[in-house]
Amino acid sequence: MSRLILHVDMDAFYAAVEQRDDPSLRGKPVIVGGGVRGVVTTASYEARPFGVRSAMPMAQAMRLCPHAVVIKPRMRVYGDESRLIRAILDRFTPDIEAVSIDEAYLDCTGTAHLHEPALVDAPALLPDLAESLRWKAGETMARAIKDAIRTERNLIASVGVASNKLLAKVASDLDKPDGLRVIRDQEAVSVLAPLPAAVLRGVGTVAAEKLKRAGISTCADLRNAAPELLQRLLGSQAETLRLQAMGRDARALERGRRAKSIGQSRTFNQDIARVDELRAILLSQVEHITQEARSEGLVAKRVTVTFRRPDFETFTRSTTLDEPTSSTAAIWAVALAQLETWWKASPGPLRLIGVTLGDLEPPGQLGLFAAPVSERATRVDAALDAIKAKFGNSAIRRASSKRLERGDGWDI
Ligand code: TTP
Ligand code: MG
Known about the structure:
Layout: E1 5-10, H1 13-21, E2 30-34, E3 39-43, H2 58-64, E4 69-71, H3 75-89, E5 96-100, E6 103-107, H4 112-115, H5 118-121, H6 127-153, E7 157-162, H7 165-174, E8 180-182, H8 188-192, H9 205-213, H10 219-224, H11 227-234, H12 238-245, E9 262-272, H13 275-295, E10 300-308, E11 314-325, H14 328-345, E12 350-358, H15 376-391, H16 394-406
Parallel strand pairs: 2-4, 7-8
Antiparallel strand pairs: 1-6, 1-7, 2-3, 5-6, 9-12, 10-11, 10-12
Helix pairs in contact: 3-6, 13-14, 14-15
């Protein structure tokens, strides 16, 4: 049966809250960031034409946009706001998957008829009519959600409407900011065609780079690639990704199943002695498991990296986070610091590397958006502070600046 899925994503979330609460900031480039880690969490749309992006070092952002107003993140405020927005979404369907502090999927298949009464009567014999009424209901609901968030919270959301999660997310991104976009099934292939393959779920920084080297940049490239080539590049993911590139995605919404831990490890065909290769593998593992945690609606309190030497001796390094998270950037910062610390003490070939998220739990009480990215800075700062206090500043700073110089995607 066809589904009706909406994806809601707030525009420039932290910056929009700041501009709402301080009218003197409206219409101005605003960067929310700073602190010990010194990175941009987000920038208002006025700052984006200058090239300011999330996760960019503050120093670089200020060079690009020197007249920007810099605001320190107010995590508690964003978390509270997230809960209030969630309460609005709850009025549209009980079937909601919170993906992050400002983003959620809504399965409105069962509630669409409340917004498009003709759907109730649409005879099963007229599937085309039922189909067009369903898209109409989706658009009506998306409009109603945007209106409610605007009038009740004075904030702007972008909403995507489609028959699955992949297309709904793509749709919410297409017209940002203040977007409302429907992607009907029959448009899916042509809408996806020119978009970078990285919009597909499971194509992280590392996979995207691999595909690009093989001449595959867009979803159309991926859809048209020889099956053997895809198989070689993507392994077991090849078929799912080809289906995704055609707009097909059967994933159900996840409303927060419990899992104790989510991890991934890999034994190499040949021992690896280069730290940059180890970083690349670890990053793809972090991307994978954090995505999985988010899709399960869970946040982790513990990050453990496993190192196995060629002689099979195995070591684990764990960090307990002050506040649980499922943010890729936050977990990556911790896992990378663990790798760098390990490498500094014992550089040498490894047979296996792995990373596990432990002490997983749903984020706070019911009705809260998952993955409070808002509290991330605090946690990561705390973790990095502890590591820095123990091992000195240089390892971490040297590693991150090297990443940025190379511009090869470490600075997620
Ligand atoms: P996003 O939805 O990725 O970004 P955004 O809402 O600021 O902008 P838009 O959706 O319009 O493109 O993230 C939501 C919030 O999460 C963001 O406001 C700040 C926080 N965040 C970080 O702290 N670090 C990050 O690297 C990212 C991407 C987001
Ligand atoms: Mg957003």
